[in-house]
Amino acid sequence: MDQLSTYERIGGEAVVASLCDRFYALMDSVPQFRELRDMHPQDLQGSRDKLFMFLSGWLGGPDLFVENFGHPRLRARHMPFAIGTRERDQWVACMMLAMEEVGIEEALRERLLQNFFQTADFMRNKPG
Predict the structure, then answer these.
(1) pLDDT for the residue 128
(2) How far is CA 100 from CA 9, 55, 66, 96, in A?
(3) Which residues contact 128 (CB under 8 A, 6 or more apart)?
(4) For position 127, what pLDDT does the model report?
(5) If both were cysteines, with which of 6, 11, 89, 118 could 59 make a disulfide (CB 3.0 to 4.6 Å apart)?
(6) What is the CA angle 10-101-91, rounded to 5?
(7) N- to C-terminal Cα distance for the chain?
(8) What is the pLDDT of residues 70-84, one digit of tens each?
(9) Contact 126, 86 (CB under 8 A)
(10) Directed axis angle between helix 12-29 and helix 45-58, to 10°?
(11) How do the domains of the chain map onto residue ranges?
(12) Model confidence over 42-71: pLDDT tens digits?
């Protein structure tokens, strides 16, 4: 039997789309995420779409981001933004809430959270 990708285990395209929708809705509405929100454009749709395309491939589904934009080059793409531990922690907390709210099972959520934290930590480019 083939082992399911993380993309398939969480529910595929529909759940990844819901996760991205919820992530940006939380970022836009929860005061705790204000600094993170302020780093984004007023209209979050483009950011949401790029996160959806990135997560699709990152989780083992269709590699939509690469197909549309080439290699993610995450650190380079995030360099224009001052990202420290506060911004990293807000991003991770927002994603954790989004994963809980869309119903990703706890064991998978915990594993994803570790990976999200490592990736978000790699984006840091300012002290503190």
Answers:
(1) 74
(2) 15, 16, 27, 6
(3) 84, 85, 86
(4) 85
(5) 6
(6) 90
(7) 46
(8) 999 999 999 999 999
(9) no
(10) 140
(11) 10-122
(12) 999 999 999 999 999 999 999 999 999 999
The amino acid sitting at 64 is L
Pick the CATH number of 10-122 from 1.10.490.10, 1.10.10.10, 3.40.30.10, 3.40.640.10: 1.10.490.10
Q: Which tokens sit at 7?
A: 């993309």
Q: What is the DSSP string of 11-59?
A: THHHHHHHHHHHHHHHHHH-GGGHHHHHTS-SS-HHHHHHHHHHHHHHT
Residue 51, amino acid:
L
Read off the DSSP letter of residue 61. Answer: S
